[in-house]
Amino acid sequence: MELGGSLNRKTNLSGSILRTSGGGGGGDITLDTLSVSENGTYTPQTGHAYKKAIVSVPVPTIDTLTVSQNGTYTATSGHAYGEAVVSVPNSYAAGDEGKVVNNGALAAQTAHATVTQNGTVDTTLNNSVVVAVPQPAGTKQISIQQNGTTTEDVSSYASAEIAVNVSGGGGQFTLLTSGNYTQAADATTMTIPFSTTGTPLFAYVVASEALSGVAQAYAWVLGNVSQLPNDVKSLFPHFDLVRSKQANGNDVTPGTTIGLTQTTYGLHDDYILVAQQSNTYPIKANTYSWYVWGVSA
Amino acid sequence: MTDFYKIVDNGYIVGFGTNGSDSVISVAEDEYDALVSMFAERPTAPSGYAYLLQDDPLEWVLVELPPEPEPDIDDAEALDILLGRETT
Q1: Tell me: the pLDDT tens digits for A148-196?
Q2: Out of A179, A186, A285, whose CB is closest to B19?
Q3: Nearest Cβ partner of A280 from B20, B21, B71?
Q4: DSSP string of A31-86?
């Protein structure tokens, strides 16, 4: 419909748009097609207008983002994510640092049984270990009869006290043998035969005078008692080398007590020479007990 | 174990005992007991005589003793020697 008069309108002409009247000036405006391929602001060039705009901004592909470790993830160009699957392994509290993780989870740990001896203990699944190694204490008494190697276990003792009964000789100081001897007749010299094994160190003789009606016993030590160890000497508290004593502790002068004026003592291989007579007083018949001490074989 | 023995000199028993050396004469326990019994019954000899115990047969034999010689030293001097003292 054509209207008369002047219209202030746009007239779509082929290929151009006429500038509207009343606006002063004028000129043709080229109509273009605007193709937009990305987001943004587009300013038409001078003298251009767009009769249509073709928008071809790429539509991002909707993917699923799988995140398996901590970090910053940048989407690939042209991709968007409809969902994100996060499968980052467990993280642990500071207090759990150092603890055992088994298959992604903290392993249950319990206190280990008390450790009481040296060794290597696997404490992987234990959160604590009680160590109670026994402390050596006390002194163990070890008695050694002779030289050699002892197999005593002293591991649980702080110290060991070793008592060697005999030093040297390889045996134990002991009573090797004893016996009796009866002098059947008065004699000028009397020897007491004895036999023994081992190493005799000294001997002593006890003489009785029962036949003379005096019920006494006398002792003579034959050998050097003073050279014996103290613990051995204690066995013979009444005797020493030269001076002998009766069993009651009184001093006895060897010889005079049995009527001898010369006395010789000695420890020989086979005999204990008890006395040697004086010319005045022969040794009276008597009964003797003898004892030989020494180191056993 | 106890061994028994006797010592014989010129047919007379000098002594007897237990656990003697190899140089003595071993005897049975019965013989040893006999020696002990015999010795316990030793008779007293008169002055100048002594009883010796004969081995075979087992019996006491009275014998005359030779005269005693004079002593070399007296009792006091002998005692000094025993005690390690100076002798006069």
Answers
A1: 666 778 877 888 887 765 555 456 778 888 888 888 877 766 777 877 7
A2: A179
A3: B71
A4: EEEEEE-SSS---PPTTEEEEEEEE-PPPPEEEEEEE-SSS--PPPTTEEEEEEEE
Q: Tokens 């050998």, residue? A: A223
Phi, psi of A250 (to 5 degrees): -75, 145
| CA B73 – CA A227 distance, rounded (Å) | 32
Nearest chain B Cα distance for residue A192, angstroms: 8
Amino acid sitting at position A222: L
pLDDT tens figures, B2-60: 889 999 989 999 899 998 887 789 999 999 999 999 988 888 889 888 889 999 999 99
> How many whole angstroms separate alpha carbon B82 and alpha carbon A203?
19
- Which pLDDT score, from 0 to 100, does residue A23 have? 46
* Structure-derived torsion over alpha carbons of residues B12, B14, B18, B21, reported in degrees to the nearest 10: -100
- Tell me, what's the pLDDT at A233? 62
Here the ipTM equals 0.74
Enumerate residues 6+ apart whose C-beta is below 8 A from A85. A64, A65, A66, A67
Residue holding tokens 């081992």? A198
Half-sphere exposure of A207 (CA within 13 A, CB side): 27
Residues of chain A contacting B29 with CB distance shorter than 8 Å: none
Query: Touching check for B4 and chain A: CB below 8 Å?
Result: no
| Nearest one of A239, A235, A183 to A210, comparing CA atoms | A183
From A282, A274, A284, select the one nearest A206 (Cα to Cα).
A274
pTM, 2 dp: 0.45
Residues of chain B found within 8 Å of residue A184, distances taken between Cβ atoms: 12-16, 35, 39, 52-53
Interface list for B 37-76 with A (CB within 8 A): 39, 42, 50-53, 68-75
Determine phi and psi for A149, rounding to 5 degrees: -110, 130
Residue A270, pLDDT above cutoff 50: yes
